[in-house]
UniProtKB/TrEMBL annotation:
Protein name as annotated: Nucleotidyltransferase family protein
Ranges of residues in domain CBS: 1-59
A Pfam family assignment: NTP_transferase
UniProt cross-references to Gene3D superfamilies, sorted A to Z: CBS-domain (3.10.580.10), Spore Coat Polysaccharide Biosynthesis Protein SpsA, Chain A (3.90.550.10)
Record bears the keyword Membrane: no
Keywords carried by this UniProt record: CBS domain
Keyword Lipid metabolism: no
Originating species: Shewanella mangrovisoli
Amino acid sequence: MNNSWLRSLLTANDSILKAIEVLNNEIIKVVLVVDDESRLLGTITDGDIRRGILRGVSLASSVSEIMFTTPVAAPLGTSKKILAKMMHDKAITSIPLIENGKVVDLQTLSSVSKKFEHLNPVFLMAGGFGTRLRPLTDNYPKPLLNVGGRPILETILLSFIRAGFVNFYISVFYKPELIRAHFGDGSKWGVNIQYIEENQPLGTGGALSLLPKDLPELPLIMMNGDILTNVDFERLLEFHNDNSAMATMCVRDYEYQVPYGVITGDGHHILSMEEKPVQRFFVNAGIYVLTPELVRKVEANTRIDMPTLLQIVIEENKEVLMFPIHEYWLDIGRLDDFDRAQADIVRLGI
């Protein structure tokens, strides 16, 4: 029996931050919350954490604040066929096994079934000039800069391949021949790569109009080619599909502390004072899932960025959802970001 699942065990008093560390570091993407006698109290997936973040729950809070308290479990010895059916019927990816009331094993979807291949197109944006990274980008496009001994864009590509995606489109503009020469048609990774070459910069949204018209009727994942992350792309796609949205935008929780005391007043009267308050925002993480209908809406050769495109969709009263990322994420836009990425990629094993 493989005991790697034991690293996914936490107690109800452990912090949400510790649960995030477990989810980010373990192949098994679930946390089992147990008592001192190994009885199952609940489970935590990244979906539970994202919902907690949206509710404003602090990452320092205990996992009991967000855990799912009625998880599906099965007796030890249940066949893989039955476990696979249970996971399919309940739309879950793992089931703890119980013997004498205690958790003794954990079975995952990958352990009881074959790996699923995703035919959804993946659109990687690699056409920018990378001006803030000069002089590094004087002779190379930013996506080809090496981080951890491998081009940034190759790390992104491999992350999608590990998640089962096989159909890729890469948007190129600045020094496109270098990107084409490195990646070719994708055959050395066993995937398909096609290139979308802009004659003029069309923005992150405008390049969608250059995609082939015969794309499969499946949601498209779009991502900037300068992001280092270990986000779960399968979970992102599952979230988008489950909610039937026109578009889903990945967002990051961002906090900013005002360095002064903030005063609220009415005329000359002070109503309240708060010393160095923390402002909390959700910021765009540069990763999207788009329906085929939305991709087709983009007019040919029109410059438009994704936030503008999504704002139009919102004004049409169509649903645009946000998917909070709690995993590691870094936009490699400046030289200090590039230096930080060199250390992070080794530490995190991305």
